[in-house]
Write a structure and sequence with these properties.
The chain is mostly helical and 164 residues long. It has one domain (16-163). Helices cover 96% and strands 0% of the residues. It is built from two helices and no strands. Helix 1 packs antiparallel against helix 2. The longest helix is centred in the middle third of the chain and has 133 residues, at 2-134.
Length: 164
């Protein structure tokens, strides 16, 4: 029993020494570590909040970019439509000018052809009249004279057509 009392006394001394010197040091270390863990948790929560704010900002920026892109596309479409419209108007004006010029040239060419045919036909008619007056006219001679006039007219228009 003496050993028991000695062991009990040693245990109480060890408990006293541990409680007086070791336990406060351990407790201070644990409290310090607990504070560090709390600070880390607070920092992690702040980082999560910042990340959520950054995500919201990113989403707003993306949405603004989409709106801006849609405006740019709409503006480009409008500009293209304006260019297409002005090109169509100028092309139509050019087409109308070319067609009017062609009509004028055709009218002038037709008038020149009529004038040339009239002057040539006048000369041929005069030759026919001289030939008719210069000899006796019967049906065969008349047909022969008309045939000669047509041949002369064809020959004249053939040489003028080749000259052009």
């Amino acid at each position: 029993m003496t050993t028991f009392l000695v062991e009990l006394l040693v245990l109480l001394i060890i408990c006293f020494l541990v409680g007086k010197y070791v336990w406060p040091t351990l407790k201070a270390g644990m409290e310090k570590r607990q504070g560090e863990i709390r600070a880390s948790l607070a920092a992690a929560e702040a980082a999560r909040t910042d990340a959520a704010s950054a995500e919201e900002e990113r989403l707003r920026t993306v949405e603004q970019a989409k709106v801006s892109a849609a405006q740019i596309v709409a503006q480009g479409t409008t500009t293209a439509a304006q260019i297409r419209s002005s090109s169509t108007v100028s092309a139509q004006a050019e087409y109308d000018r070319i067609v009017a010029s062609a009509h004028t040239e055709v009218s002038l060419a037709r008038q020149r052809a009529i004038d040339e045919a009239s002057s040539t036909l006048g000369g041929v008619v005069m030759e026919i009249v001289e030939a008719v007056i210069g000899r006796e006219v019967d049906a065969a001679a008349h047909a022969d004279l008309v045939g000669q006039a047509v041949s002369a007219l064809d020959a004249t228009s053939g040489t003028q057509g080749a000259a052009r």
